[in-house]
């Protein structure tokens, strides 16, 4: 009985996480605002930057969207935001410093 209950509980938790994820490359501005920590202005900045091309990874999102740094990215990821289906970890931004990523993006513009 306990084994079945444990399996059912694990399945429910997995489904909850799966359906709660919002991908920065696919979500509308309205869907993005459902993520804790993303207001209307940030959602619009994400959608606007995405119109220039999909975000390759978290480092790309951090570099292109004003107001999102490493700590904010971690918070947004904890709230359900993903980039290409991947949650944020410090290793997902590569080994580059956040300031270096932002400088590269600025130089490309």
From TrEMBL:
Q: Which GO terms describe its biological process?
A: DNA repair
Q: Name one GO molecular function term.
A: DNA binding
Task: List UniProt keywords, sorted A-Z.
Answer: Signal
Q: Which InterPro entries match?
A: Endo/Exo/Phosphatase_dom_1, Hlx-hairpin-Hlx_DNA-bd_motif, RuvA_2-like
Q: Where is the signal peptide?
A: 1-20
Q: Which Pfam families match?
A: HHH_3
The Helix-hairpin-helix DNA-binding motif class domain, residue ranges: 30-49, 60-79
Q: Which named protein is this?
A: Helix-hairpin-helix DNA-binding motif class 1 domain-containing protein
Organism of origin is Lampropedia puyangensis
């Amino acid at each position: 009985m306990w084994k079945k209950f444990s399996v059912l509980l694990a399945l429910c938790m997995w489904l909850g996480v799966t359906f709660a994820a919002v991908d920065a490359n696919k979500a509308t501005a309205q869907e993005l605002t459902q993520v804790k920590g993303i207001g209307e202005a940030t959602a619009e900045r994400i959608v606007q930057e995405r119109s220039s091309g999909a975000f390759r990874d978290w480092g790309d999102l951090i570099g292109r969207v004003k107001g999102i740094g490493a700590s904010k990215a971690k918070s947004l990821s904890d709230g359900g935001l993903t980039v290409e289906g991947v949650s944020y970890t410090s290793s997902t931004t590569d080994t580059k410093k956040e300031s270096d990523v932002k400088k590269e993006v600025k130089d490309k513009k």
